[in-house]
Amino acid sequence: MTEPRVQDELTEVLEEAREIGWGDPADYLRDIQRRDLDALAAAVCRTDGEVVGVGDHDRLLALQSVSKAFTYAVALQECGLDRVLDHIGVEPTGEAFNELSQHEDGRPFNPLINAGAIMAQALIPGDSQQDRDALLLDRYSALACAQLEVNEEVLRAEQVRGDRNFALAHMLASSGMLTHDPHEVVQGYLRQCSVEVTTTQLAVMGATFAGGGRNPVTGERIFDERVVQQTLSVMLTCGMYDASGRWVAQVGIPAKSGVSGAMLGVVPGALGLASWSPRLDGHGNSIRGVEIFRRLSDRWDLHVLRHRDPLGHPGEPNEPA
Ligand code: GLU
Q1: Best mutation site among 68, 97, 191, 238 for ligand 1, i.e. most ligand atoms within 8 A of its Cβ?
Q2: Model pTM greater than 0.85?
Q3: Can you say whether residue 301 is alpha, beta or left, with left for phi > 0 and alpha for psi between -120 and 50 degrees?
């Protein structure tokens, strides 16, 4: 599909989603999000590096829980699969993102709930929390092809209502999983949630996953293919809070959403797709974002489980004689 056609179709879908006028931002971010309440953006980055953004695609938003996917990938890249699996499971929970969903041995169920994301943050190598913060920001920036920064206002709001995250970290420490200072690790987790990107940059970050770990714009290999496969697997099964099952059935691509209204989707081998609209549904997913992804999945045939015949068996109806 040509770039102007992608732009036209993305614009059309964005305008269709704009008609949905309900949904609220998260309570604790209401003051910050009030000015962005009707912001709406979508962007695509293909694995050949071509980027198309529409709507408010160059305005900044906080990554929030979308950061969990990137931190998990950095932890896998730096520590290896076995060590990460020793600390974090890969099971969906069906529970809220901030529940203490742990296996009997203390491992959080998956890296995309808060307990698992706090654990992933603690696996990032470094002699201090500052080292871990710096490494993560460096990797996020390499993914986005831009020097990213923390939004201090968002960070303060996260710290003010951080009790539950501090509690989760202390529980992980009490079960022997977390050996760093729980407070420092949660501060690092809240910082990663507060890193700002544009919707276009988020699509580029996703395209690195789509390209098997190589950034399509700079050509830098950031993750091994195995790391990407592992990360996309948990995004597919656990990325959309407790609406992940319906997401797979309806949209069918690995994705992660965040309380800022950010959404990231990945079509392996093809593209990274991002959207932003702070109006959230009861699960914490962006209402307009889900609509954008649902429509694009239908239009562009994105569902990763749709029928394909990679071996082209002779005699199959779709095999020309
Ligand atoms: N910083 C938020 C928290 O831990 C992330 C929420 C989200 O995006 O799901 O509560």
Answers
A1: 97
A2: yes
A3: left
